[in-house]
Amino acid sequence: MDENRPIFPQIAEQIENDIISGALPEETQVPSTNEFAAFLRINPATAGKGVGLLVDAGILYKKRGIGMFVAEGARARLVSERRERFRDQYLAPLLAEARKLGIDDAQLVRLITDTSPEKEH
Amino acid sequence: MTTVVEVRDLSKHFGPVRAVESVSFRLEENRIYGLLGRNGAGKTTLMSLLTGQEFASSGRIEIFGESPVENARVLEQVCFIKESQKYPDDFKVKHVLRTAPWFFPNWDQDFADQLVTDFRLPLDGRMKKISRGQFSAVGVVVGLASRAPLTFFDEPYLGLDAVARQLFYDRLLEDYSEHPRTIVLSTHLIDEVSDLLEHVLLIDDGRLIVDQAADDLRGSATTVVGGREAVEAFIGTREVLHRDGLGGLASVTVARLSDTERQAARAAGLELGGVSLQQLVVRLTSGTPTDFEEKSA
């Protein structure tokens, strides 16, 4: 948990990550608010607020009396949202740092190609 | 939302000392509150007033809608675990655990027994002889097993080692989930408990200076770091919570920034950092700190 920012969006992000990675497949039940709270050692109301964010966004839905489930199509939606943010969130700081160190675009591309595990294939 | 505690314009003076000064707030049912502040800020006095153990100099207190002073109906709903609880001279741990149920109608004996095992408490140990950590653990057991609708823990972890403190936090959360109630944790170990808190009351020098949701507080301040001139230009006339510097570098903590302001700061080459609850409390209550004291915070 990052202590320097509100916790509830971080809870939402963790659940999103699990949905994207496939650890929480669509139409499966997610842990209850109290289970999240106990596991992450946080206040249950805070955990509830994080889960609530995803319910409002339609990523999770409530089955009355049973619990919270991952909505159909949730993974695809999250992946496309994250891809949209990728440029701002990852590329911009990468380029800024590269500029600071005098790494030009060609060097950067080479660095990426060399580092990527896919180059072996 | 049901109000459990309502305090209006409460003051407590000991001679010239204004231990609590014009404090007003409410506590809502089934939340975990952090009562934070430095040593001597007035936390214990405030809790003693709320539990009818001290008389107010002025102001009003309502606990479950009534005054707590000599009011059995209210007090059986309230558990106050004091940092320095006094026990009769020859009291052993088992005597404390045998008498506690008389005062608390919701007492859960099985839970108490389980906690005694968890904390490895010596039932035949004398309260005067056992270690500070064991003494604190007895308070923790009573505070949890009492299941009082309003429970105060005043620095409950003194002498408890890291394992026992974690055990306390875990049992507290588990039991609170199953048996919701209003809990007030008074502490200066803020980093350890900050994730457990839903709401924060911060007192400084007898006055209430923060009464806010913990998660709102966590996002409420930003530290702007960069070259001194760039930082100062960005800060302008904003209210500064804290200022730090090293050579040509400045690090200034200000209140919440909007997304546009954050973009502007980044565009100006400044770095933005968050501020944890503990750092925020330090910044709000540290009077006139020197630059170096604050570096480590």
Low-confidence stretches of chain B: 288-297
User: At CATH's second level, what is the architecture of the largest domain in chain B?
Assistant: 3-Layer(aba) Sandwich
Q: How many individual helices of chain A?
A: 5
Number of strands of chain B: 13
CATH hierarchy class name of the largest domain in chain A: Mainly Alpha
Within the CATH hierarchy, at the fold level, what is the topology of the largest domain in chain B? Answer: Rossmann fold
Distance N to C terminus of chain B: 36 Å
Total DSSP helices of chain B: 12
**Strand content range of chain A:** 5-15%
Name the CATH superfamily classification of the largest domain in chain A: Winged helix-like DNA-binding domain superfamily/Winged helix DNA-binding domain
Termini separation of chain A: 36 Å
Strand order of the largest sheet of chain A: 1-3-2
Rough shape of chain B?
A: elongated
Share in helix of chain A: 55-70%
Largest sheet of chain A, if any?
Answer: 3 strands, antiparallel
Superfamily at the CATH H level of the largest domain in chain B?
A: P-loop containing nucleotide triphosphate hydrolases
Describe the structure.
The complex is a heterodimer of chains A (121) and B (297). Chain A has 121 residues and is mainly alpha-helical. Chain A folds into 2 domains: 7-73, Winged helix-like DNA-binding domain superfamily/Winged helix DNA-binding domain (Arc Repressor Mutant, subunit A); 75-120. Helices cover 61% and strands 8% of the residues of chain A. In chain A, strands 1-3-2 form a 3-stranded antiparallel sheet. In chain A, strand 2 (60-63) and strand 3 form a beta hairpin. In chain B, helix 4 runs antiparallel to helix 5 (132-145). Chain B folds into 2 domains: 3-216, Rossmann fold; 218-295, Alpha-Beta Plaits (2-Layer Sandwich), CATH 3.30.70. Chain B is elongated and about 65 Å long. By secondary structure, chain B is an alpha/beta fold. Helices cover 35% and strands 29% of the residues of chain B. The longest helix of chain B has 17 residues, at 162-178. The two termini of chain B are 36 Å apart. In chain B, the strands form 3 sheets. Chain B has a 6-stranded mixed sheet, with helices on both faces. In chain B, strands 11-12-10-13 form a 4-stranded antiparallel sheet, sandwiched between helices. A 3-stranded antiparallel sheet of chain B has the order 2-1-4, with helices on one face. Chain B has 12 helices and 13 strands. Chains A and B meet through helix 2 and helix 3 of A and helix 6 and helix 8 of B.
